[in-house]
Amino acid sequence: MSFSMAKKFALQNLKANRLLEIPFVLSSGVMLILFNITASLVNNNYVRTRHQALPTLIKFGIVILAIFTFIFVQYAAAFWLKRRSKEFALYGILGLEKKHVGKIISIEFLILFAIIWFVGIVGGYIFGQLCFLFLNFLMRDVSGRLMDYHFSISALIDTTVLVVILYLIIIIGSGLRIYMSTPMELLQRTHKGEGEPKSRIIIMVVGFLLLVVGYGIALFVGGLLSSINYFFVAVLATILATYLLYATFTVFILKAQRNNKSFYTPKRFLSVSGLLYRMKGNAISLASISILSAGVIISLSTTIAIYSNYIKLGDSVMPREYRIAAGSENISNEAMAKKLQSLVESSVPDTSMIKDEYTTFDMTVAAVKTGNEISKYQRGSKANPIFVIASDLEGYNGRTHQNIKLDEGEILLGDNKNNKISDILKIGDRDFKVIKIDSIFPLEYSGVDGYSIVVKDMATLEFVRKALDGADINCSVYWDVDGVGDKEYEDTLVKLKDGIKNQLTGDGRSMYGVSSRSVMISNQYEVNGGFLFLGVLIGIIFLTGTVLITYYKRISEGFEDRGKYQIMKKLGLSDDLIKKTTDSQICLMFYGPLIVAAAHCIVASKIIFRLLGLFGVSDASLYMICLGGVLFIFALIYFVIFKLTSKVYTNIVR
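RE: above sequence
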């Protein structure tokens, strides 16, 4: 067969099978657009120079995109080939050699992937500009402009390489499928479903056991470290349980309906029998839709919660605009405070420009809380550690503009998880009377259980340090500045950091640092904005997969139901009864995965919220609002998908 003849066959086939090819091109094009955008962003000079942490997050997104692009394209191509198995079989019966069929398929896929490549490149550049602006908006970077987003040659090359790899893999796979199958096998493959597994009772029991394991970990495992260790175990167990129970339990329940007298009424009989047939053939696909839907909901709700939480924190990340801190082994606390205060005063022409300055001493240490006692943490211990930040009363008063006084044996105590605090707290061999305050835990420790303790004087602070086997006491000076521009003062901060380094080099320096609230907030917006961008990216990936599988399943059902629809009409069943029974089956199959996905997300909310503590999210209501909002919006999108695919199904059946 000549190339021109094969090309004619290929063009005719593409025109005849556009119902299958359009979603293949669109879904693959969306994945290639996202891949091209991420590849462009990671190589963008503005992103690389202005945001240090962002390229790492985007590279992670590129890996995820490449993996899921491969999975979705393979699934779509496999479905496309399966639906055309009858056509390929007829080619063989009519005398066309397998190599000729392979040549036709190669040309068809070449045309399809050329279109997908074009969509990925052009769409990636157009939508990439919008994504660039959206990313800068999330990170509160107002200086980013469209002129900073250039067409990326490296992204073009990466996208082209990915398309070529996908094309070659699909051509090799489809060629093997054709060459290793007889025309009779190809004819039978069109109607071959996913099937009902053997030993279904055992598999069903295993599925329930895995579900108990997954849900049990999510609901009952406590502590941050345990949650981290067991989270992926819970995810894998739940995913496997979903697949196993879809394949067995749904069929088991439907078969049990035969024992009810109502089963033998016309509507009930047709609905249950039809649903039983559908579940046997579509269980794995429906489970995949459930898992992908849960992935959309969880990825978006968690990243939105992280980002929203940081917006809510705002200026509370630091009590003043600037901070200088140092710790030393061979210099007294008083001498260190004087050195730091001197450096702060040297940063401005006139000391009157320094506003709201205060000095505080503190120490941070891992400890163990047992009942009303806090003791030192032993390395290798299985107990969940807590963090204790102890500071002096004078510094706390300076921070809060108060004049609190403490008697001997009294402390101020706050915690960042709203745990129940007793009136007496034992540290070492001393009992302290507790006066409760709001937590003043810094942002970087907000993900773990922690207590902020304010003691009367330096002697008590030294006692707490020794009792908990803590590190050296650090000195920090916080201040605001009036009358100096932000950019001008940034250069001063660099000199200030060099100054503290030079002064402490000979003093047994153990740590030092200069920081500003605006830079800290900017860095956090960069990280959290990157997380939200990545979450949206993953959400779109999962949503694309959900739409793709749903659409193909509706097409498959449409072709299968077309013949059954005509048979039922010939048997004398009314159009109204046929429509009602068919619609009830479709609704149950379509909304079942959404219900399962919602159940997974709700059960997982406890362990996910605990893990969100790593990112400073401590408000459970915030996460539940984000989860509820994403679930509601996804349900609306899911309903739109149902309506759109229903039209395609109706056109095929009728």
